[in-house]
Amino acid sequence: MALPADTKTERKDEPDFQQAGVRWQERDRxxxxxxxxxxxxxxxxxxxxxxxxxxxxxxxxxNRRLNRLARRRKIRALGLVLLKGTGRPxxxxxxxxxxxxxxxxxxxxxxxxxxxxxxxxxxxxPIGKTTAxxxxxxxxxxxxxxxxxxxxxxxxxxxxxxxxxxxQDYILIVCQSEKRLARLKETxxxxxxxxxxxxxxxxxLRRNEPWEDCEGKTTNV
Length: 221
What we know:
- By secondary structure, the chain is α/β, with parallel strands linked by helices.
- The chain folds into two domains: 5-99, Arc Repressor Mutant, subunit A, CATH 1.10.10; 119-219, Trna Endonuclease, Chain: A, domain 1, CATH 3.40.1350.
- The chain is 36% helix and 23% strand.
- The chain has helices at 14-19, 26-37, 42-49, 55-71, 103-115, 154-163, 178-186, 200-204, and strands at residues 76-81, 90-94, 120-127, 130-138, 141-147, 170-175, 195-199, 211-212, 218-219.
- It has a five-stranded mixed sheet with strand order 3-4-5-6-7. Strands 1-2 form a two-stranded antiparallel ribbon.
- A hairpin with a 5-residue loop joins strand 8 and strand 9.
- The two termini are 22 Å apart.
């Protein structure tokens, strides 16, 4: 799986790796470019660049490579996230600083980027008087993405939709539970003609027609 084109950046510090006596690999460049744009865990990096063997073996290989790049100060180890509420906390790697309270949110956006590969995916794109979490472009159609992590109440969500202005593109709202999805649909009166809702679990399971509108009609995008 090649690195998404929108995450490729020109690297000007490659000689430093050679001088440090570390074997420079194309995969190292790709990993640095990936996490510079999309903060990620070892498990996420493994799914792209270490696809052989079992998932656990791939994760361990990715973790060793990420640790090495962090020691060489090519990327940062920012902190821990517990994405599934149980199990082992995972280290988040990035090429930029991120507030600790935003690590989970940023890693989940990266998860969406992987789920929507190979379509064009941009993070933090201005729309109206606000900034969407991401912009997905698929078959020349634009989809504004809002990833919900249960932090905004109904009043804040209604204000968010007002700031979208006269948006005519679809807005994709990704929730963390079916219960939260139902609640957010109640706040989306202003954008009900362009809003589609789903959960992260639906997307990961690759469900047929995982998206639904405010009336409950399901579809794909």
